[in-house]
Amino acid sequence: MINPFSPFFPAEGDIFASRSREQALFREGLEQGLSPQGPGPWNVALVGPWGIGKTSLLRRFVRIVREFESPVLPVALTVTPSVAAKLASEMLKRVKDEIDAVQATPRWPQRLVEELGKWEPTIGWGPVQATRRPRPTDPDPDLYRELRRLWQGYLNGRVPGLVFFLDDANALLSKDPEALMSLRGVFQDLQGDGARYPLVITGPEGMLTTARDASEPVTRFFERIPVRPFTLSDATDAIRDPMRAVGLPMEVTDAAAIEDIWEKTGGHGFFIAFAMRDIVREAMIRHVAEIDRDFVENLWPSIAEHLAKERFESDWAAASPAEQKILRTIADDPDGPLSRKIGKSGYALLGRMTVKGLVMRTKRGDYSLYHPLFQAFVREQEVPGDAEA
Ligand SMILES: Nc1ncnc2c1ncn2[C@@H]1O[C@H](COP(=O)(O)OP(=O)(O)OP(=O)(O)O)[C@@H](O)[C@H]1O
Ligand SMILES: [Mg+2]
């Protein structure tokens, strides 16, 4: 028997549940953006907190591109610090790999495969030619030049376009706060030259607005698609579909059980998968065929304890004593206005705590802990006495 729930890997294939609105939006935008009569490429930023399902959705988008009726190639990479250090050559190499992997099919006729295969990226040339004056913060002048050469010499008139996917694009910013600006510059210029290279990135909500004055054009270049917690109906799919996909001899039959899990997890992808993994594991051990609300309720204390061990204890440890005090203040009184209780020095810490993912800005401009389950955990922690920042 296979337990299909894994909170530590992005959901793929049959395990991926719904998000049908976002998928439809992407399909439509892709079609419009790649049509020769269309307005030009459509650039997307999938934004949301950690673990909400950004990578899973990005991979689904990659699949949509692969299955597109006309030949379009997805070029996907995850931005890690080492990728960020040589983004241009990493992207060009990935394009080459994708092209080399294309097999002749009805969509990809043999001649087309052969023509494209002739392109070789030139990585790390000497001085830049004056096709376009590079800005000092450009990812690498080669990126613009090489992608333009690819478009003009090989793709144009043969394929509708290439779609670039950069997962965790926020990792570009740790070295260079202007990196997204530069990337946008390159793609905007390429798109201005007629190249159909839509760009899809993922990252936390604040990613597009951290680079001070530079932020405004970046925000305009990308259409933001927020990745939100699952609705009850999406959560129902996320709970039931994976179990059916692997043919488990058990089911969550009870709608009240699903609602209970949805409420407790706040519909958050990681927490649902985490809870479900424990629930299925327990049901297997006890040979339970019908998982109902009582089963969930009875197991919940042990799930909460397990979550604390796996996740919340390290979140707590990542906070300084002064930050722990603030977390506790918010947890004890989530609705009260914060400013008076934590003072100026406390308020100054909230920015860093947001980047660490411990707190989130609420609509009213206050702060809340990143998840209700974390809030419950924080309430039970011992807070340092007279801690200094
Ligand atoms: N559409 C989905 N269907 C089923 N499960 C999902 C879906 N999206 C996310 N999940 C679950 O949530 C977990 C986290 O998803 P994912 O890794 O995609 O999030 P993320 O936003 O990319 O996280 P991070 O911020 O850590 O990069 C996955 O392991 C998976 O179990
Ligand atoms: Mg991710």
Distinct bound molecules? adenosine-5'-triphosphate, magnesium ion
Category by helix and strand content: alpha/beta
Shape estimate = globular
Number of discrete domains: 3
How many helix segments?
Answer: 15
Quote the beta fraction: 5-15%
Give me a quick take on this structure.
This protein has 389 residues and is an alpha/beta fold. Helix content is 51%, strand content 8%. The strands form 2 sheets. A 5-stranded parallel beta sheet has the order 2-3-4-1-5, with helices on both faces. A two-stranded antiparallel sheet has the order 6-7.
General description of the model:
The protein is of the alpha/beta class. It has three domains: 19-226, Rossmann fold, CATH 3.40.50.300; 232-315; 320-379, Winged helix-like DNA-binding domain superfamily/Winged helix DNA-binding domain (Arc Repressor Mutant, subunit A, Orthogonal Bundle). The protein has 15 helices and seven strands. The strands form two sheets. It has a five-stranded parallel β-sheet, with helices on both faces. A two-stranded antiparallel sheet has the order 6-7. Strand 6 and strand 7 (367-369) form a beta hairpin. Helix 11 packs across helix 12 (293-318). The longest helix is centred in the C-terminal third of the chain and has 26 residues, at 293-318. Residues 125-133 have low confidence and may be disordered. Bound molecules: adenosine-5'-triphosphate (ATP) and magnesium ion. Adenosine-5'-triphosphate is lined by residues 6-11, 15-17, 19, 48, 50-56, 238, 269-270, 273.
